[in-house]
Structures are given as structure tokens and as C-alpha cells.
Design brief:
Radius of gyration of chain B: 20 Å
Number of helices of chain A: 15
Number of strands of chain A: 10
Largest sheet of chain A: 4 strands, mixed
Distance between the termini of chain B: 30 Å
Mean pLDDT of chain B: 97
Oligomer: heterodimer
Order of helices and strands of chain A: HHHHHHHEEEEEEEEHHEEHHHHHH
Number of domains of chain B: 3
CATH topology of the largest domain in chain A: Butyryl-CoA Dehydrogenase, subunit A, domain 3
Helix content of chain B: 40-55%
Distance between the termini of chain A: 50 Å
CATH class of the largest domain in chain A: Mainly Alpha
Low-confidence stretches of chain B: none
Strand order of the largest sheet of chain B: 1-4-5-8
Strand content of chain B: 15-25%
Number of helices of chain B: 11
Structural class of chain B: alpha+beta
CATH superfamily of the largest domain in chain A: Butyryl-CoA Dehydrogenase, subunit A, domain 3
Shape of chain A: globular
Mean pLDDT of chain A: 89
Number of domains of chain A: 3
Chain lengths: ~400, ~350
Amino acid sequence: MDLTYSAEYEGFREEVRSFLASNWTDEDRASTPPPEGAAVLMGAVVRTDDRATAFRIKAIEQGYLYRNVPRRYGGGEQSPDTLKETILQEEFRKAKAPWEIMGQGPSMLVPTLIECGSEAQKERFIRDTLLGKLRWCQGYSEPGSGSDLASLRTRAELDGDQWIINGQKIWTSNADTADWMFCLVRTDPEAPKHDGITYLLIEMNTPGITVRPLRQMTGDVDFNEVFFEDARVPVTNMVGARGKGWSVSRSTLKHERALIGGSQIARRMFDGVLFLAMSLNTRGQLAIHDAAIRRRLVELEARLLASEYHGYRLLTMSARGEAPGRASMVTKLYATSLNYDITQLGMDILADRGLLGAGEDHAPAMGMFTTAYMWSLGILIAGGTANIQRNIIAERALGLPRDPVMSARQSA
Amino acid sequence: MNFGLSGEQVLLKDTIRRFLAERCDTSRVREIMESDTGHDPALWTELAGLGIQGLIIAEQHGGSGQEMLDLALAAEELGYAATPGPFLGSCMATVALIASNNDAAQARWLPDIASGAVLATFALSEIDCEWDPARMKTRATGSTLSGTKCLVPGASVADVIVVAATDADGPGLWLVERDAAGLTTTALSGVDMTRRIAQVTLQDTPATKLVAGIDAASRARDAGLVLVAADAYGGAHRCLDLTIEYASAREQFGQVIGAFQAVKHQLADLATELEPALSLCWYAAHAFDRLPDQAERSACIAKSHLTTIFDRATRVATELHGGIGFTWEFDLHLWFRRAMFDRGFLGEAGYHRDRAADLAGW
């Protein structure tokens, strides 16, 4: 066990630092607006303007970004090296430089296209998606199909060389700003439910598509409902074969869980909550001097440290080419429960100040913690609810049998 | 950057697991724990043959010069198997001797500890839940000790006891031999029959001073915290394994109970808490040797967190086993009782959380 980086990797870190020093200046940093909405939790640089794009292109040329995407599709194309990956993330975050685009396009669609897309689709979509020029939303959930996604009912019928789509999607993040949607539709209602699904790419300005914003409990609008009424999509926009959409989408879901599972959000929230405890007085006493709050802080820090060291362990397993198995399957549930508990302690420290909402000048940190508290509940649901995660852990990691009722209905 | 076990460490762990499965399964555990002393000298000698007692002892003193992480892996395996015996006290006394930098005492005792010929333990706790080596009421005057040590692991079978006490110069460590005048060990009836405890009273008992100050005693305590955390991880892991096995075989309402979501979710939650906690143990063991600034606080955090999880694991396991889990014949109570020991030994979780908050300067 050795928590230092070898000379080779320290050299790499120096190289990355000097690249950042000469390509992302103080002026660039100063002109970067603070993140808003869910990006507050991630602390991400969300710029996609020309300056940020020019920077990303240079960083890709260096092989620093999108390392697992081939160069011919606009990626950095490097052999996998999780230590270098970690160094890059650390240094880019420190320099507040644009990292890979956060959205569902680069993180979910691109890996799917690389695995299952046609050559024409790869060439047409990947490069512009990586640079944020093409923005994507994900058309999976429906009003009647949440955890049981494979029961989805949005229909697509073949008419010559076009699909005609009718139905409705819901919880669609960024549907109002996206150029395209990757979507699961039912193309064969007679087939067993997993076999009748096809994966389609749909341009959002297609006639027959209506987007209606959905306001969530935070008061912000980050989701939408999307309605399809005889919307026509070229048959060439199908990824993988007809009826194979479920398996095409599986690689995508795997990537989403990895995205949400890290401990960076919990670290940011914990540091914020600790700062609150050290700066807020409650009835004449700093919160940090309250015995119960101190113990809760240590309990949460223990879970946070476990999550961070667990990240080192996963990193090591990955660098050694070992299968992480159970170790990686628990990360999403662990991190999202931890986030919720940390922000809940933040609410207890705020005490009556927790009545004040986002943007209120009189609220500590402009009410950011009350919003974070609500968001921490949202991420327990996003990408598979906590109970679905528990099913996955029990069945795939612990080897317990599938629920016979669910198995029976699944194959029906 | 490498946060994983070496090939040798994986081999060590596997060797101990196989050895204990073969030589000390739960029926043997029960025989030993129901004996008068709760200690099997033959097993102790065999463990020494595997190099367990000498793991962190330098090669010049007959050990293999490994690190706390190696010893923690052994503690994890002993916890997994609920192995009875005086392992914890022996390890803490070993660390106390090493940290004392007392060459004469090391040369005299470490080789015999490593070979299993001498059994040592460490006496820290005093009345009213005192585990702080800076606040010992046991007094040293000249070359004798007087006072009472409350919960001393393995004291009834120990050949030597390293005692934390105070003299005119302040706190320090002394060494007392088994036959010393005025030494009385009174075996106590403990919740955990696999790890016996005794009260040790000293009345003008001849003792050798090992070192002045609290550093060596603190190191021994921190080692104990790390090893208890590792034991708790091993025990909790065994509870999870036993319960998965039971839930996969036991049928009710026409199906195995492991197919019910309520059962699955309890086990998934336990696995989710447990899996990352392993890294907290490893880190604390690593910090003990390599990250001096973080060693003490990491030990507090690991002990309080892992013993809390072990406690929860025994509850979930017993609940999911139903009535059988509450019987004497079934093995679960071995770990239930070990969890109760881990929870209180060296001080409860809240005490170490308070210390962690203090050490952070909060």
C-alpha cells in the first residue's frame, strides 16, 4: 500500500499543470460564471462558449479529455490509465478549467454509439457531442414506466423509411434546450416486453414533438414532459437492431450509475456543512460546540472518508485489471444516502434559518443548503431509485434469487 | 498510488482463513470458550508457527518486521472465525514494547512473544470508563505499582502485563511479571466468552519501568483501536455471509426467504455500509505506520465506525435468522457477543467520536 504517486505520474502531473497554466488563464477563470441548479452540487465548469470549446479541443489533442474515445471520432484516444485519469480530474478541478461536458450526451450516448452505433452515426454525432455543440436529452422514463422501465409504451410504427412515434416521456432533463434525444420506444407490442423495444435518435425540432417544462420541488425547472404526436424519424436513426433497444441501453445505464456514484458531491457538501457549523451561532453558541452536532459530524465524516478511500480501492482494482464486482455496485446507494444525511445535518445546523429559500440574502450561503437538501433527495431517485439499487445489489452482488413475482411478469 | 493488498498480504489472509477453518471451526471455538481459561495454548503455539504474534516484531527480535496492515488482516480473519484467545492484549503489549524503545525489555520479551512462549497483555482501563493513558490513577513509587486495572484482556493467562500508570514524573509504562508479589488477577464474567477479561489489582507490586510519557501507551491504544476495527469488519462480514447463506436456503410461504424484497433490502443495506468501511480499516492501519499526523484520529474514526456497523450487522443477522438465530446451538451469538465486546473495549463509539472532533480542532 502506497498513497503517493510514482515519479512517472508526478511527471505527468507537472506536464498537465504546465498545460493548464499556459492554456487556461486567470482571465478565463474570472470570466467563468458560478454554476447553477444541479451543477452547484457537482461544482462543475459548465461553459460551452467558443473560448471553452477552443480549450477543450487543445486538451483533447493532448489526450487529456475523452481518453477512451477514438481520435477519428474526436476523442483523446489513450490507453486506459485510471491514475492519469484521476490526476487530470484533480488538476482540471484545481485550475477551474473546463472538463469533459457533463451532460447525458458525452457520458451516456457516446459510449453507447461506440459500442452499438453505425459508422455513419459515430462520425455524425460523437465529435460535436463531445464539444457540447450537440446537446442531448434522454427519453427513457414514462408516466407509467419508472423503475419498471421495460414496460414503456411510447409506440413507433414503421412507415416506409420512417418511424412514426406516438406517446409521452417524462423526467426528461434538458429537453427544452437539447438538440436531440436518445430514446427507447416500443416497436413490437406483441413481443415479450424486453424484446419489443428499439433505441432511436430523435431530433427535437421534429414536427409533432411538444416539450412541457416540469417544475420540481426546488422550484427550479430541470425536467420536462415530452409529447410525441405522429413525429416522423428516419429509419437510419435506429441504434442497433430493431427490438434490441433494451440491451443497447444497458451499457448506457451502467455509465449513468458510475457518474452519480462518486464521493465528490458528498465532500463538497460536508465541507460546506462543517463551515456552517463553525460560523453559525444558535442561541449564543457556535453549532460546532454542540456535543450532538460534533458527534454527528464525525459519524458523517467516517462515512465520507470510507467512500473516498473506497474510491482509492476501486481505482487500484481498476489499474490492476481486477473486476470490482460488489465493491462498485454499492457506490451509488452509499453516496446518495450519505449526501442526503449530510445535507440533513446542514438543515439541523441552520435551525430556523432553514426556513429561508434559495437566493435570499438573509440566508446563510444564499439559501444554497436548503436547495441542496431538496436536491439530495432528487439524486436518491435519479438513475434508479434507492430500492431498485437495493434489488440490484441483493441479486447481482450478493447472489440472492430474483423476486419470483417480478421474474414471472418480466418474461410475460 | 496503490490502495490494495500486496500478493503476500492476500496470501497471509488466505492462509489464516484456511488454517482457522480447519483447526478452529465453531465447534472448536465453543470447546475453547467453555473451558476454564478460554485459551488453548496449542492453538496459540500454532498461530505463532504461522507467524501471527511476530508479524510486527522486527526480524532481529524473531519476528517478520511487517506492518500494522498485516496484523489488521490477521485480526480481521480472527474476527471472521470468532477465534477465542488473548490476541488483542498480546498485540497491544507488543506495540507498547516496540514504542517504548527500551532495548533491554525488547531483547528480553519480544523474541518469546513472537515464538508464542510468552503471553503478554496490556493493562490500560481504570474505574469509571477511563482509557486515557494521561489520566491513570495506578501509582508507581520507586519500583513498585499500586492500583486497580479494570478490564484487562487475557490477564488470567498472561505471563507479563504492561501497565499504564503514573509516577512523580507523570504517566508512563511499567512491566509486571506473573509471579510478582501483590499481583492479583480476578477473572470476570464477560459478555464475550471468546475474549476473556480480568481485573488486575496491584499492591506494592514490583515492576520495571519501560518508558516515561504517554506516547508508547497511546500507540498501544491506537493499535488496539485499529485491531478492534478490523475484528469488527471480519465479524460483520461473517454475519453477512451467514445470513446470505441462510436466506438462500430457508423456505417460507413456498419460496426461499432471500427472494423477498424486505429481506433483500436489509442485506443490501448492510453490504452497502460494510463494503466501503473495509477501506476505512485499511487506511487506519496504513496511517498507523506511514501517516503519523493522521494515525491517532484515523484509529478513533475506524473504531467508532466499524464497531457501530458490526453492532448493526449482528442485529440484522439475528432478525433475519428468526428464532434459530436466538438459540445457543446456532453460532450467531458468537459474533453478537463479540460485537458487544468490540463496542465497549477501549471506550465506546461516542467517546472516540468526541476525541476525533477534538483532534480535528473543532
